[in-house]
Design a protein that fits this description.
This protein has nine helices and 17 strands. It has about 400 residues and is an alpha/beta fold. Among the domains are: about 180 residues, Rossmann fold (3-Layer(aba) Sandwich); about 90 residues, NAD(P)-binding Rossmann-like Domain (Rossmann fold, 3-Layer(aba) Sandwich), CATH 3.40.50.720. Strand 16, helix 9 and strand 17 form a beta-alpha-beta unit. The longest helix is centred in the C-terminal third of the chain and has 31 residues. It is globular.
Length: about 400
């Protein structure tokens, strides 16, 4: 039996501690029941995909530092194996962003002939960029890392360790540490970042860069398809700066990137390993009202999309989604689309032929559209719309485009 999302209509106060600031000023404002625990783990058969493990989301808002987290998160449900794949580097748009970011970091921090650590390196795409641009030496940590069959020229520059980064690896010294789209997966981010700070020790010139999804994009821009079980933490600029300050870092730069979808923080270790130097209440006034309005706005957007799909069905049209990542899986499961969306298109060849968790749509490559042309193509992330339009035009057909934003 399918379970529809359940959304709370008002705040409920629950005894729990914020994993960033330890405050008990937590208001539960939003709930979704039984969604796939892994969006970036695909399945070899449709039946296995439909039976994928599920969990609940119960979001709490910390009134002290502005952090949002899933109070129902169960880490025992999570397993990051070599089958896990959240790489976005097959997209020219994302690859261009990563290349510009790497070039800026190499230039700003003079990363030439330096030692670099990446925590949660995935397949090592970003670490390779940093090492190639500055002729640097890299160490990448990730339990899901899969060795490349055809090693490139950077193989001699980089060591990959298939493990979670921890203080046991403190002997690996670095001039620069980066960690992109990992912190939101960690149930106790303060403990983790404190461990990173202790590993750095008195090397006060070691720059760190962390990148996370921006929760304000979810709240204000209604990027609701970013609400996934894998993300137990949702950072605001307020909670992210509080976290780094309280863990012994001085913030050099904190900015929204990727058209507001990401937050990027750059910081240096400072003397004294604890004690925040910032007021976490700064900027929370607007966020509090965003949180209060979110459940109703979420419901309105979901209802609007159900009407869109009903309109498509009444017209006798077929629809597919483009994007078999977290946004696509959340969209399909939220709208219960087993009978309405035919399949999902994705340019990542490692996903093609696999099936999406919860709803079981098969992932197909773009050239599949040449022979099986849908009437409507739903783009899961509008930031990729231009490149997707170019691809479909190259394939010789022009469906109706809709963006799921």
């Amino acid at each position: 039996m399918r379970t529809s999302p359940m959304i709370s209509n008002q705040y409920t106060v629950q005894e729990s501690k914020c994993p960033v600031c330890n405050s008990i000023d937590i208001a539960v404002f939003f709930e979704i029941c039984q969604i796939p625990v892994h969006c970036n783990l695909l399945w070899p058969t449709r039946d296995e995909a439909i039976r994928a493990p599920k969990g609940d989301i119960r979001l709490g808002f910390c009134g002290h530092c502005g952090h949002i987290f899933n109070l129902a998160f169960n880490p025992e449900l999570m397993e990051y194996t070599q089958d896990y794949d959240n790489s976005l580097h097959f997209s020219p748009r994302f690859q261009g962003y990563a290349e510009l970011l790497a070039a800026r970091l190499v230039d700003r921090y003079d990363l030439q002939d330096k030692d670099i650590i990446e925590i949660g390196c995935g397949r090592g795409d970003f670490l390779r960029l940093l090492c190639e641009l500055g002729k640097n030496r890299g160490v990448g940590f990730d339990p899901s890392y899969v060795p490349e069959q055809n090693a490139d020229a950077s193989a001699e520059q980089i060591t990959f360790i298939r493990d979670f980064y921890s203080e046991r690896y403190a002997s690996y010294k670095a001039d620069f540490i980066c960690c992109r789209h990992v912190l939101e997966h960690i149930q106790f981010p303060r403990d983790f970042l404190s461990s990173v700070r202790h590993s750095i020790g008195d090397r006060f010139g070691t720059m760190v860069l962390f990148e996370v999804p921006n929760v304000l994009f979810t709240l204000r821009d209604l990027g609701i398809w970013d609400l996934i079980y894998e993300h137990c933490s949702y950072f605001s600029a307020s909670s992210l700066s509080y976290l780094f300050n309280s863990c012994g870092f001085g913030i050099c730069d904190l900015s929204e990137t990727y058209e507001g979808q990401f937050l990027c923080i750059e910081a240096l270790p400072r003397e004294g390993l604890s004690g925040s130097t910032c007021d976490p209440r700064v900027g929370l006034e607007g966020m509090t009202s965003d949180v209060a309005a979110f459940a109703d706005q979420y419901r309105s957007k979901v209802q609007a999309w159900r009407r869109n799909l009903e309109r498509i069905a009444r017209a006798g049209q077929r629809a597919v989604i483009w994007g078999a990542g977290s946004k696509g899986v959340t969209f399909l499961n939220t709208l219960e689309t087993q009978d309405q969306i035919v399949y999902a298109v994705d340019i990542n060849p490692r996903k093609q032929g696999m099936y999406l968790a919860g709803t079981g749509q098969q992932v197909v490559p773009p050239d599949f559209l040449q022979d099986d042309q849908p009437d409507v193509l739903i783009v899961m992330n509008p930031i990729y719309e231009d490149e997707i339009r170019q691809l479909t035009e190259g394939l010789g057909f022009t469906p109706e485009f809709m963006c799921a934003s």
